[in-house]
Design a protein that fits this description.
Layout: H1 2-21, H2 31-35, E1 56-57, E2 70-77, E3 89-91, E4 94-98, E5 104-108, E6 114-118, E7 140-142, E8 145-149, E9 154-159, E10 165-170, E11 186-188, E12 191-194, E13 206-211, E14 217-222, H3 235-241, H4 249-252, E15 254-255, E16 262-265, E17 270-274, E18 278-279, H5 283-287, E19 298-302, E20 309-314, E21 329-336, E22 339-346, E23 352-357, E24 362-368, E25 375-379, E26 384-387, E27 398-400, E28 414-416, E29 421-428, E30 431-435, E31 452-453, H6 461-469, E32 472-479, E33 484-491, E34 499-502, E35 506-510, E36 515-520, E37 526-531, E38 541-545, E39 548-555, H7 560-564, H8 566-569, E40 579-585, H9 611-624, H10 626-629, H11 647-660, H12 675-698
Parallel strand pairs: 1-34
Antiparallel strand pairs: 2-40, 3-4, 4-5, 5-6, 7-8, 8-9, 9-10, 11-12, 12-13, 13-14, 15-18, 16-17, 17-19, 19-20, 21-22, 22-23, 23-24, 25-26, 27-30, 28-29, 29-32, 30-31, 32-33, 34-35, 35-36, 36-37, 38-39, 39-40
The protein binds calcium ion.
């Protein structure tokens, strides 16, 4: 026994010396290593750390007792100040992460030193082809390569050592449509899996698998049927086609895009994907108001070798509220009624927390985790939601809860096997929706048409404040067995960060108001928080290098919420500033001061347009400019707030609207706006600057 032990420790010592002497090849990760990730908890080798995407780290050097001593170890400023949504991958002391415009960074995980940067040079005009900012949710690594899906739809493999391109493929089915890629690839059994987004722009959803070594396409799984005049591509499309009516969706795309979540169970050999909303939102235009429309808003189980369909569960049949089921999927083995069950958990936009049997897709339980009005409950016998008549906007304008931004969006949740709790970044939101009587037009490249009108946000600051108060954020520690919260933490604003769970009895989360926070996992007590300068939406990660544990937050305000709902997000009062922020115990680094919001208004021009003209100008502004610069010219702090335009900016105005800043993402409107229209829109901007001046004077500002 003693001898065996001695030999064992001797050989271990030899191994350790060898490991220290020969540096490992960069990103030398394969399936066996990811499956055994718990054996090397210092690394974070795939998107959700493990294939089950629990985002729970066994590291416990930082714990509930000492987390208060966390300080800034290092920070790296990213190249573009826009939304940051990436989960960094950390392997053997190197961090691979992404910023806006799909730019990839390789950093020394101990110091933050830049090892290399790869910019896929996505053309600036592509900004208008996506709904929700030029975000990217991170890379995957495999056998010495780093993989990124670029915003313009390429899948690019990079040499992990140099950042040089090994291969690049075009993942887009139809370049005449507005497809974008923002999701992180996953790699299963040597195949790189990547989906895309674009359902608001009229696309057909699918996911594709490529050989990790060569980039050769292995399979493609469509999520909605193609033209019913042609034979269905596979058995899944045969099943799906029966749930659609007419053929209108062919020109509207159908939707069902796989823009974010995936998980993999190696034992069952099942790949799980989450699918998005219908295109258009309006079920009448899409499918004559009939049918469930598979596989919209669904979780679908596939064979990773072939893409063959195995089972599906549809969360929102006949979706008409943008209730995607692309939200984070977590696999876990938990005891239900005393028996261990292999479950799949998801809390999609529609506000229900689902627990499924992941062997067969059968619903085990579902319960709403925030107040909702679109359905009363999910019928466990049929697995279907019992939809409320109050939200069918085909019969007239309706108030729908949650809104199209969801009770939970892409921000990942995490699961702690010890507490048995899921840490869910939830939110409350409301939308008014009204069907178009006739389709205005079929959506086309860079132009959204949902078949639905979202009623105007009034200019009145009091009404705006009232609507804003209905939008809140909440961190919920959800017990998936009891289907009830164990504890909650309230935030004044929605769109807070994804979560990280650790064996140190900790939950980490970034906030929309620019902080990094740690809570006790069992009680929810707040134990630590630190300023990070900008909204932190991405889920943090933790890793170990040289015996020291680090926690990294990817920081950068942006994405769908501040863009689409500008004035509503303004309550957070943060500026977009993109950086990697890494903490460790006892560190004393200091962040530079945060970027300042515009201070004071410049000299204002005169408003010369009549009240009637200004009304038209407002409609034009909200239609052409509002989705980036904020409805009613109140920006959500990512894109410039035009009310603060200086005399110099006014001089450049016509040129900027006519394409001079195309490379920065500002579209060229010269073909759709006449010079007099541009002037009218400018008049509205100036009018809103005067409104702001009045409000500031009233509030005692200047
Ligand atoms: Ca959508």
């Amino acid at each position: 026994m003693t001898l065996t032990r001695t030999i064992l420790s001797l050989s271990l010592a030899t191994l350790c010396t060898a490991a220290a002497a020969t540096p490992k090849a960069p990103a030398d990760v394969d399936g066996a290593r990811i499956r055994a990730a718990d054996q090397e908890p210092g690394n974070w080798m795939s998107h959700g750390r493990t294939y089950d995407e629990q985002r729970h780290s066994p590291l416990a050097r930082i714990d509930a007792g000492n987390v208060g001593r966390l300080g800034l170890a290092w920070t790296v400023k990213l190249d573009v100040d826009r939304g940051v949504e990436a989960t960094p991958i950390v392997v053997d002391g190197v961090m691979y992460t992404t910023g806006a415009w799909s730019i990839v960074y390789a950093l020394d995980a101990r110091t933050g030193k830049r090892l290399w940067t790869f910019d896929p040079k996505v053309p600036g005009e592509n900004l208008g082809q996506g709904c929700c900012d030029t975000v990217n949710r991170g890379v995957a690594v495999w056998k010495g390569k780093v993989y990124v899906g670029s915003f313009d739809g390429r899948l690019i493999a990079l040499d992990a050592k140099t950042g040089k391109v090994a291969w690049s493929v075009d993942t887009i089915l139809d370049r005449k449509k507005s497809y974008t890629v923002t999701g992180a690839p996953r790699i299963v059994k040597g195949k790189v899996l990547i989906g895309n987004g674009g359902a608001e722009f009229g696309v057909r959803g699918y996911i594709t698998a490529y050989d990790a070594e060569t980039g050769k396409q292995a399979w493609r799984f469509y999520t909605v049927p193609g033209d019913p005049a042609l034979p269905p591509e596979d058995k899944a499309m045969e099943i799906a086609l029966k749930t659609w009516s007419g053929n209108n969706w062919v020109k509207w795309g159908g939707g069902g895009t796989v823009w974010d979540s995936m998980a993999y169970d190696p034992e069952l050999d099942l790949l799980y994907i989450g699918t998005g909303n219908g295109s258009p939102w309006n079920h009448q235009f899409r499918s004559e108001g009939k049918g469930d429309n598979l596989f919209l808003s669904s979780i679908v189980a596939l064979r990773p070798d072939t893409g063959e369909y195995v089972w599906h569960y549809q969360t929102t049949p006949s979706d008409m509220w943008d209730y995607t089921a692309t939200q984070h999927i977590v696999l876990a083995d938990i005891a239900i009624d005393g028996a261990p069950r292999k479950v799949l958990m998801q809390a999609p936009k529609n506000g229900f927390f689902y627990v499924l049997d992941r062997t067969n897709g059968k619903l085990l339980s579902a319960k709403n985790f925030v107040p909702i009005n679109w359905a009363t409950h999910v019928d466990l016998a049929t697995g279907r939601p019992v939809v409320s008549a109050d939200v069918n906007y085909l019969t007239g304008p309706k108030v729908v809860i949650p809104s199209f931004l969801g009770a939970h969006n892409w921000q990942p949740m995490s699961f702690n096997p010890k507490t048995g709790l899921v840490y869910l970044p939830a939110q409350e939101s409301v939308a008014g929706l009204e069907a178009q009587k006739q389709p205005l037009f079929i959506p086309h490249k860079s132009v959204v048409n949902l078949g639905v009108e979202v009623p105007d946000l009034p200019e009145d600051p009091k009404v705006e404040a009232e609507i804003r108060s209905a939008w809140k954020g909440r961190l919920i520690a959800w017990d998936p067995v009891k289907q009830a919260p164990a504890w909650t933490q309230e935030y004044t604003a929605p769109w807070n960060g994804g979560t990280l769970s650790t064996a140190g009895n900790l939950v980490f989360q970034g906030t929309a108001d620019g902080r990094a926070v740690a809570y006790a996992a069992d009680t929810g007590k707040k134990l630590w928080d630190a300023r990070v300068n900008s909204g932190a939406m991405a889920a943090p990660v933790t890793y170990e290098v040289g015996g020291e544990q680090y926690v990294t937050f990817m920081v950068g305000w942006g994405g769908a919420f501040p863009g689409v709902a500008g004035p509503l997000s303004h309550s957070t009062r943060v500026q977009a500033e993109a950086r990697v922020v890494t903490f460790k115990l006892g560190a004393r680094g200091k962040l530079p001061p945060p970027k300042q919001a515009p201070q004071g208004l410049p000299p204002l021009r005169e408003v010369t347009a009549s009240a009637d003209q200004l009304k038209t100008a407002r409609t034009m502004f909200n239609g052409f400019c509002g989705s980036c610069h904020g409805l009613n010219a109140v920006s959500g702090s990512v894109y410039p707030d035009l009310r603060y335009m200086t005399p110099k900016k006014h001089e450049q105005y016509v040129a900027v609207v006519s394409g001079s800043r195309l490379n920065r993402g500002m579209p060229n409107f010269a073909s759709v706006l006449k010079p007099e229209d541009m002037e009218l829109i400018r008049q509205y901007i100036v009018k809103r600057a005067h409104d702001l001046k009045g409000q500031l004077a009233q509030a005692g500002g200047k």
